[in-house]
Amino acid sequence: MSNDESARRFELLVMPHLDAAYNLARWLTHNDQDAQDVVQEALMRAMRYMGGFHGESARAWLLQIVRHSCFSWLKENRPAQRTFLDDTDDSVHEVAAPASDEPPFVAMRKADRLQINGAMAALPVIYREVLVLRELEDLSYNDIARIVDIPVGTVMSRLARARGLMREALMPSARPALRTVPRSTYGGEQS
Amino acid sequence: MKPKIETRQINAFVDAELDLASQLEIEERMRLDVGLRAQVEGLRQLRETIREGADYHAAPAALRRRMTTLIAPKPAESTRLPGVASAVQRWLGWRPMVASFALAAVMAVTLNLAGLRPSQDDRLLDDVVASHVRSTLGQHLVDVASSDHHTVKPWLSSKLDFSPPVSELQIPGSVFLGGRVDYLNGRPVAALVYRQDQHIVNSFVWPSAGKDSKAEFSEERGFQTAHWTHGGMNHWVISDVNPEEFRAVVRAVQLADHDGQAAGVR
Predict the structure, then answer these.
(1) Which numeric CATH code is attached to B61-262?
(2) What are the C-alpha distances in Å from A120 to residues A26, A64, B154, B161?
(3) Residue B131: pLDDT band by 50, 70, 90 thresholds?
C-alpha cells in the first residue's frame, strides 16, 4: 500500500514538472533520445529519494536530481565537455567580459530562433544551465543556487557571463570591443 | 566618481534579485549615467530575445506516458521485490538489450495512440493495449501460472481489494494460462490470461459502480478489444486473434462469468 501512496505523491509532486525536467535535460544533452533516458533515470532516482523531500519547491528539488543525472551522463558520454565543468579559474573569463562602457545589446527584433538556439547550445554547459534555469524556467537565484549547488554569488557571475557570451554571439559587431576590457575588473567568478 | 557597478550586479538588477537598497541605488545612478541606462536596457532586450527566441522543450508525450506507466504501483511486483523502485531498476537494468524492442513497441503503440485522444475511455484503451503488448513480450505474462481457477482466484483475491470472476473458457483451442495483477484506469486490476491457439488473450477485470452494459467492440492497431460492465465489474478483453474468433472468445468470457455467478462461485 505504501507503494500506492508514494506513487500518488510522486504523481502529484513530480509529474507536473516533467516538462521542466525534460527541457533542462534536452538543453544539457543536446538531443531528444538522451534527454529522455536521462529524465527517466532521474525520475526513478527521485522516486527512490521521495522520503527525503520535505515540501520545499518540488520543481527545484526535481531539477537538482535531473541536473545531477545530466552531469553524470555528460561525464560518461561527453568527456570533452568536462573541461568546462571544472573551470573556475579566469581562463574562462577571457571569453567575454561585458562592461558598462560597451555598446549595449541592440534588440534583434527579427532574431531568428535558429541563431538564438544555436548561440545557447554553443555555450559551455555551466553557463548554459544557469541561463536555461533563469530564462526558460524563470527560477530565482536561490533556486538556481540550490539546483546547481553553487553559492548565489556564483549564480550571479555565471549568469552575467552567460549573457555576455550570448550577446557576443548574437551581436558579432560587439566582439572587438570585448577584447580591450581588462578582465580583472568585471565578471569575475566570485562567490 | 563612484566605482563602476559590476556587470553581475547589473544583471541581478535586471532580474530584480538585488536587495532593495542596492536596487534603489542602481535606479538612482541610472538617472545620471547614460551608459548604465543603456546597458540595463540592452540587458533587458537580450533577456527578452532569449526568452522569446529560445526553444522550450516540453516533454514528449511518449516520455510522459512511459513515466506514468513506470511509476504506477504494481502490487504483484511487490510480492517478489522490495518495491516499485527496484522493479523499475530491474527494468532499467535489462532495458538496453531485451527491452529496446519492448520499449520501441510500446512507444510505437502509445505514440500512435497518443495523437488526439483526450477522453478517459480512449486513454484507458491505450493503457489496455500497452498492457497487453507488454505482457505478450514475454516479460510478465502471469504472476500465478495455473490452469486451475481454484488456484488463480484465491491468489488474485489476496492481492486485490476485490474477488474477480475466474474461469476457464469453454471453447475449443482455449488454454487458461493463469493470472496477474496489472494496473489500469488508476487502480490495480485482475488480468486473466488465456491462449487461443497461438494468440494471447488478456481479460482485465475490476469493480465498477456503473450499470450493466453490452459489449462494445473495437479494433486498435490490429488488436481486437471489447469492453462491457456486468455484475458490478468492468471487463476489457484484448487479443490479436481474428475478429470472428475474438467474438467467440468474448462470448465465452461472458458465459463463464454468468455461469460463475449463477453457481455462486463468485
Answers:
(1) 3.30.200.100
(2) 12, 21, 59, 53
(3) confident
